[in-house]
């Protein structure tokens, strides 16, 4: 081996502790980078594959009166339609123990060729017998049922009929049942009729060869026009994006996390640069000597870059295991969240290539500047370097340092802290960057909780009930308030609406077949309402006198193309188009896109004085009280089709982002680790470089304990200063992360919330780490004899 | 081998400029062992630094081994130095993490003057020449001061440079060891090297061929040394 290479290895070996810190920092960051590269790549690919594998309908047209076999055959021959199927979706309930669960029944003809929106049988067989249904596999835990069990499914009258679960299917186009707090069942029209519902395949699902939104919408609109010409009324056209319902959220969030992990890697690179810079500063004379025996700047630079490459390569290799574990772990968690079955766990070739490239290139790129600076030093400057003196006082800006007064120790510590301002800036930058990301992770998590808590607190009701048909509002209220435990009851109207154009044309909806993702509602609440108090983000809330006023939540604003206050809003309900004037917008946590209006403005759709929904506020056990309200309503002849507790809504909201918040917190911890390691490394270098100075101090009478105290004070001050900068920098970063997370999840940025626990934890952690790192190095320095310290090179 | 003409060197100091050297002329031939003496601050080390290309003159010319050192670019100086000059320091300046042999091989490695497989045998040969071959595989810390200085001299000879420059090479050695080191320099000069040594030693009879005395940055004396 060449002597220069031998020197590099021995130098690294002599600085084992620091090398270990550098390797650890890069390995920690690379674990994150690798994990997110794997998770993102495999998830995005597999989610697309399973979704496409179902051959999802490009568009679904809601056809009044249903679609029979003859019409279906004709549709299949329409231009731009490659295949078509007629289906039906019914929302009902299932009794699970003493609770009701929402249930979506997907009705498919027994002779359906199952080419469109395909299901994969997991157990049992298609078609189920009339008294049977198949469950989507994620619905089993929601309904607490498996094949062979019997479910009590509610019919339109509210009466339940026992249906046997004949097997399970995998429907990759649906979000997991648990996340949506709903059961998914598949049965034939005959099975549906047995429950008392009218079987009518009113969902015409068409498949188009082109999958882009414009082509799909054009074909769907042409089919709708043709159907209308045939005398068939089309109420709604749904054309969801050609991707899994949660695809874009997952892609954006994993992308953001990957950016976080890469930032951690850059941070680790800075740590390596700072540490190596410190080690090289201690070797300045050796660099000078090597130059006197013929070493060029380029040769020295290659040696030191080789050292960085060796460190980075070791870390990159060490991180492979944790990256694979964390990557596939995260893939599994998110896949479960998306109801995506990972058929192929292999990663494409460019993932390991990018991993290795990032692991080597980023630390090398970051370290290049300090290494070039060290290697370019002239022989004269290198030989003049003595270690103890650092030229303090020679700069004009140093003069104020000499005027610092205080206790003897604190003055010395403060002057020492400020004399190498470049090093101090680097240490603070490392600590601040790590800390800012750590605190912003915790702040975002706090903001998330605060936003959801606030959103829930703005709903005064504890449960929401949907009746199977409209009924007089006062009768509903009477039946509800007669129940013990009901504090308040407020009937209202909620209708499924479709955005329309000014000329009455129904716009194509981006709604998925589960009717949850992309749903649009028109809710007519009493004005004033006692049940909701949403935060008004623009304009005002509804007045009792509003006859055509409408208030939109943020999802509705987005769906309607960001209308301005005073603009007209056109919505169609059952094919009838109405016009409203936008008077305000509100922020709403959870729930679909909704336009809120007054009862009198929906008179053209429902009979005045009637309602189909009920909000109740309860005391005691909400579930029991809600059951009692249902019973009371049934006694009055009012059947409940669906009930939802606010607690369940909260669960659904939390379930949507639990994995993402968890990952954010894990990344925050990773950032903190890198920041703390950086602080430890630079503090250790600072102390080591002053070894000679400590010798001088001991020679003139300083006791080792005094030196230790002085150094400890300096380290603690650095930790404190760094953590304060981190807390300040964490604020704009929290705003940025909150904006991204909030916009993806709710369509609105999360509010800025500072996590007191996070801030205090960071403050304590960084100060303690600074103290420990400094103490270890100071202890080592203080143990050296005066002779040893003065001969320290 | 060495020509210094009208060389001046000034350093900026808070009060203005400090003249370290003024109007220095000096010529050293191959095979000549020249000792430069003078008090602290007389400009000895500055002169040596100019000869080694470590510093640049403020005025005048410095030619060493046929190269106008004052005109060579900073980036090319290291390569030139590695080939043309061997440097010996008062505190030896061996790299502590390399063995003695590896220290000697280092200049060969950087300059590529010797084939890789020939480097160790040559290093051992040089160490044998300075009398410490048996310590080849020890790290410098395991050697006495005199042995370390011999190792440093072997390193200075690694690329067979025509010029050897030594800065107070005996300043950190006892008198017997210092005498041995001076004898080594004399041998090198006899072998054809131009040796320039900056020193405080006054009694160089029997070793140096010539004694150049610097006073306040000027050549105050230049006499041949007689045995």
From TrEMBL, chain A:
It comes from the Bacteria. Keywords: Cell membrane, Membrane, Transmembrane, Transmembrane helix. Residues 259-378, 666-785 form the ABC3 transporter permease C-terminal domain. The keyword Secreted does not apply. InterPro entries: ABC3_permease_C, Macrolide_Exporter_MacB. The chain crosses the membrane at residues 20-39, 256-282, 303-329, 349-372, 424-442, 657-682, 717-737, 757-778. It is found in: Cell membrane. Pfam families: FtsX. It is a multi-pass membrane protein. Belongs to the ABC-4 integral membrane protein family. PANTHER family: ABC TRANSPORTER PERMEASE YTRF, MEMBRANE COMPONENT OF TRANSPORTER-RELATED. This is ABC3 transporter permease C-terminal domain-containing protein. The lineage of its organism: Bacteria, Bacillati, Actinomycetota, Actinomycetes, Micromonosporales.
Automatic annotation (TrEMBL), chain B:
It comes from the Bacteria. Keywords: ATP-binding, Nucleotide-binding, Transport. Residues 2-227 form the ABC transporter domain. The keyword S-adenosyl-L-methionine does not apply. Pfam families: ABC_tran (PF00005). The keyword Nucleotidyltransferase does not apply. CDD domains: ABC_MJ0796_LolCDE_FtsE. GO terms for molecular function: ATP binding. This is ABC transporter ATP-binding protein. It comes from Micromonospora andamanensis.
